[in-house]
Amino acid sequence: MYYPQVQTSQNELWQHSLYAPHNPHNPAINSNALHGHPIHPQQHVLSPPLTQHWQQQLLKYENSRSARSPHHRAKVSMLASRSVPKAAIPITNPNAAKPPPPPAAESTPDVNHPSSTVAPIAEAEAPRPINQQKPPENNWMTLDMGGVQIKSLPKTSSLWSFKFLVTLYLNHNSLPSIPSEIAQLRHLELLDISANQLTAVPPELGMLTSLKEFYLFDNHIATLPHELGTLHQLQTLGVEGNPLDPQLKSLIQEKGTQHLISYLRDSCPVPAPPPAREHRDVLSSSERASLDAEVISVLCYNILCSKYATERLYGYTPQWALDWDYRKELILTEVMNYNCDFLCLQEVDVAQYDGFFLTHLGKAGYNGVHFPKSRYKTMVGESEEKRRLVDGCATFYKRDRWILVSEHLVEFSRLAMGRTDFKKTEDMFNRVLGKDTIATVCLMESRETGTRVLVANIHVHWDPRFRDVKLVQVALLLDEIEGLAEEFARLPVRLSNEETHEEAGDLLDKPRRPRTAPSTYTSPTQIPLIIAGDFNSVPSSGVYEFLSTGQLAKDHPDFMGHMYGRYTSEGLKHPFGLRSAYNVVAGPYQPPSPPEVKLTPNGHPRPIKESSGVGGNAGHGELLTMTNYTPSFQGVLDYIWYSVGNLGVNAVLGGVDERYLEKVVGFPNAHFPADHICLATEFRVKPPKDTSSKPPLLPQTPSQ
């Protein structure tokens, strides 16, 4: 971006009309002179020194005023490019072999973190998916329409289809208004609409969250819409030359653009809530009525741990809506309203599990299992208060319906370290062993029917630069589940639902129903399996392909060329026949088709981007368009997987209203307490094929 260099001294800034120290045409002085009285020097009280913020504002104001001529910025840019000496232009052989571009996943994380702000992201471990929202490919990304006396921009203008634009100049025209359609230019980083005839700023401009420079100089604007408070990356808001409200002008003069944006954000009225999310029935009412099957319901929710919910990461969210005391009540109300058998929550820290969720959900009839991430064990010497801030996975279950037979912590780093086929290479230590995300597996048994269910809860590593680590973590979990399922299948079933006082608690006061004849399981794959969690992987990823098909090629691009023993020498396999509960409208998994090869202007093939650990839905049959919604990322990352051989989907919780999302920058906000949305599914149990034998009674072990 080019700005003419204007050398302006502090004295010249003081001479700006806003800060003129006195009036040279003072009538009192003229009157004294006419009557022959001596004129004594007047004592003037100077305004306080200009703040650094306002000095920069005035410098850019003068730069803007100097750009009156038609297409001024385009001409300056052209002249600047012509002034480059020919000797400075490298001469290269167009036919020479070019080294392959570095993998996209190995690039440095961009500032366009899903929740980035103009401030650097300082947290060392912030488990938010990174996805740089790049504009569509185009040979030019700047458009200068300044100084050409445009009098109107219709809503149907083709300008709004230029979604690749990063810089747009509409300054020094005669525009009385800006259409709301400008909000379609989501990749704009600089917008100059100075020196027009504007009396208002469209609130839809708050959707342009990539804006860093926004110039409104020399218009007729008296106030600013609160919706601009979502411009969390804005560095300069140019307002000089407008009759702006004194309170707003004082804020930007004294404390700068970011303080004004924060004020607009935190004082913005709460918008109307969206319509309630509807349950989407997969079965018709007649099909549901004809079935006499046992029903299991599951909820999955990454609740956004309080220590990650900082203004630095979520600068577009009002502070009051980011506060944990506000968010936790919304989360609790939401999960209790859906009344599911199993609640699989991620990013639950120890303190909130013990002090909030276990207490309130316990009163609602739930018991729980919680394991923090691996770092909890290694924080030797840290205070207990800090250790209790470590988050992890929590699984709650209705204690009047289910018995917890056993629970298991799956520490990926520990499992990887114990594998003899994993060479202890630098990649292994730097990539896999340093990640402390976990999974949990609960072996559950129905009190009434004896039906057994394996419920796994997982939070996969977030960083897309480690697609290989995501694959390894999911593969390790499936291996662990296979071993646990074999043990679970060999356990004899309970023939009675009577418990000890410690097991049943308040259930002893309720009427007891006779237990139906329990099923028996002759193989691990006969036990219903549910895996819920935040997989930080989109439907086009290797993780999704592996879970959907039960296999993955040893040379899959998501391994990124790293070696992981049997996983990369033979490929990945699992025997469970899994499907995403929200993939109820699609047939078998279809791998993504090869991308179309595009040519550069010189005729060379453009580099093909590798599959990413995060991205969009990619059309793989997922019912939802997103489960994670932030300014720089909207896509599916969360899933509830189930074994199709012994479970079927009755209904799923639908998505968020699209019309509501069109007006929302990102989550969390006043209505959605986390950057993820919750998923909920109702399953029907298919009985195992072999129910002939009756094994002996299972010992009455304590249940948690």
Automatic annotation (TrEMBL):
Top enzyme category: hydrolase
One CC-aspect GO term: nucleus
**Database matches in CDD domains:** Deadenylase_CCR4
The protein in question is named CCR4-Not complex 3'-5'-exoribonuclease subunit Ccr4
**Major location category of this protein:** cytoplasm
Subcellular localization, per the record? Cytoplasm; Nucleus
GO molecular function ontology, one term from the record: RNA binding
Query: What keywords does the record list, in alphabetical order?
Result: Cytoplasm, Exonuclease, Hydrolase, Leucine-rich repeat, Magnesium, Metal-binding, Nuclease, Nucleus, Repeat, RNA-binding, Transcription, Transcription regulation
Q: Organism's domain of life?
A: Eukaryota
Q: Which Pfam families match?
A: Exo_endo_phos, LRR_8
Cofactor dependence:
Mg(2+)
Annotated family: Belongs to the CCR4/nocturin family.
The segment annotated Disordered runs over 24-43, 62-116, 499-523
What species was this sequence derived from?
A: Marasmius oreades (fairy-ring Marasmius)
Q: Where is the composition biased (Low complexity)?
A: 85-96
